[in-house]
Design goal:
It contains ten helices and 14 strands. The chain is 41% helix and 23% strand. The protein has a five-stranded mixed β-barrel. Helix 3 packs parallel to helix 7 (248-254) and helix 8 packs antiparallel against helix 9. The longest helix has 39 residues, at 303-341. It is an alpha/beta fold. The N and C termini lie far apart (75 Å). The protein has helices spanning 7-20, 101-116, 143-155, 173-186, 211-219, 236-240, 248-254, 259-295, 303-341, 344-349, and strands spanning 27-39, 42-48, 53-58, 71-81, 86-96, 133-138, 160-165, 192-197, 224-228, 243-244, 354-357, 360-361, 373-378, 381-386. It folds into four domains: 7-99, Nucleic acid-binding proteins (OB fold (Dihydrolipoamide Acetyltransferase, E2P)); 104-254, Succinyl-CoA synthetase domains (Rossmann fold), CATH 3.40.50.261; 259-338; 347-386, no CATH class.
Length: 395
């Protein structure tokens, strides 16, 4: 019976097997590049075909002539990395070996749909002037929906966001995206639809590179914004949508008006209106002075009567001007008070508090459980606490 081996001993034997196998030294392998990453001058990627995939590492790659989706011919050695327990193909050199299959399919579909007119402007819809509710098709977990909510609510806290949770990668993703597109398009309250996910390899983005999704997008009655991948990634979804943005955060900015800058604009316009009113008063008083001076030379039997009528007109005009000014001043005060009420800091100063659980707002007693750790934000600091009991009911 063989003596039991330690993990290190077994790893050492495996390493030696690959190092001593001549057939695995200086091997030439061709395949499609996917998941390409550059980490401090070292390349990490996969070589794949329709039936298999091999993880690859290329150290010290100061300059390369291939990219994601390219077909390359790589030369290198198979090595087992004991500490990580991984088998990798260490590439010493690589050269292009034709276009990647997925990229080639992508270009063929893009060119065919473009020649058919699927990407033409006649299918593009303009964003409405007032957007109150947006629909977002994306994964229910992850940073994408958080980025959209953070950016849009910072600019417009009253904006409503409806999330349709969908798969954004793998088998069945395309069907859930299309299902979400149809569901959100039927809702009358939704003004615009965002299809979003983070970046990824060309394989990860395949659900967004299909003909059926492109045709469903141009059927929608609402404008669709494609926020798929990063700035350098392009998909069929991008070309079919009414708008394409580089990241989900940019999508959140596109659909949200900055109401705080609009309020500032209103205040500036009110101040300008006030100056115009004062200027108008000055002109009126100047004209009145001229009239008084002219009438002072009149000496007729009806001078007293005319003078009284004139003074009455002056009083009416003065009252009208004062009332107009007071009305505008009251409007200015109301708008300023509304701006103050919108300030979340003032809300905290009035004794209210914000409660978080794992950095998420708590809106209902149903969102907390016994022994949950909570954070309470007051106007001058934070309190860390724990739930010892909970009782349903309002104030």
């Amino acid at each position: 019976m063989l003596k039991p081996l330690s993990v290190s001993q077994l790893s050492f034997y495996i390493t030696k097997i690959f190092e001593n196998e001549e057939l695995l030294q200086n091997v030439k392998v061709y395949g499609e590049v996917s998941g390409l990453k550059d980490v401090r001058g070292n390349l990490y990627f996969n070589l794949k075909d329709e039936d298999a995939i091999v993880p690859c590492i290329m150290f010290g790659a100061s300059s390369i002539n291939f990219k994601e989706g390219d077909q390359i011919l790589a030369t290198g050695n198979m090595r087992y990395y004991g500490k990580g327990g991984k088998l990798n193909f260490y590439v010493t050199s690589a050269m292009l070996n034709g276009n990647g299959i997925l990229y080639q399919r992508f270009m063929e579909l893009k060119n065919r749909l473009e020649s058919e007119g699927i990407f033409s402007d006649k299918y593009k819809k303009l964003l409405p002037d007032n957007i109150n509710t947006i629909g977002v098709i994306t994964s229910s977990t992850g940073a994408v929906i958080h980025d959209i909510e953070t950016v849009s609510h910072r600019r417009n806290p009253s904006l409503n966001i409806v999330v349709y949770p969908a798969k954004v990668q793998g088998v069945g993703a395309e069907k859930t995206i299309i299902k979400g597109l149809k569901a959100l398009d039927k809702r009358e309250d939704i003004d615009v639809i965002i299809i979003a996910r983070g970046g990824g390899s060309i394989e990860d983005l395949q659900p967004f590179n299909t003909e059926i999704l492109a045709r469903e997008i141009i059927k929608t009655s609402k404008p669709v914004i494609s926020a798929v991948g990063h700035e350098t990634d392009f998909t069929i979804c991008d070309f079919a949508s009414s708008y394409r943005v580089a990241t989900p955060s940019v999508a959140g900015e596109l659909v949200s008006k900055n109401i705080f800058s609009e309020l500032e604009t209103i205040i500036i316009k009110l101040q300008d209106l006030t100056r115009q009113i004062y200027h108008l008063f000055d002109l009126k008083y100047e004209k009145l002075d001229n009239f008084v001076e002219k009438f002072s030379y009149l000496a007729t039997k009806n001078i007293n009567k005319k003078q009284n009528q004139f003074l009455q007109n002056i009083s009416k005009l003065s009252n009208l001007g004062n009332n107009l000014f007071l009305e505008k001043e009251n409007n200015y005060i109301l708008l300023n008070n509304k701006l103050i009420l919108l300030n979340p800091v003032d809300i905290l100063k009035r004794g209210w508090a914000k409660v978080y659980k794992e950095k998420k707002n708590i809106e209902s007693i149903n969102h907390v459980e016994y022994n949950d750790n909570l954070t309470i934000e007051l106007r001058d600091g934070l309190i860390e606490t724990k739930v010892v009991s909970k009782n349903k009911g309002g104030l």
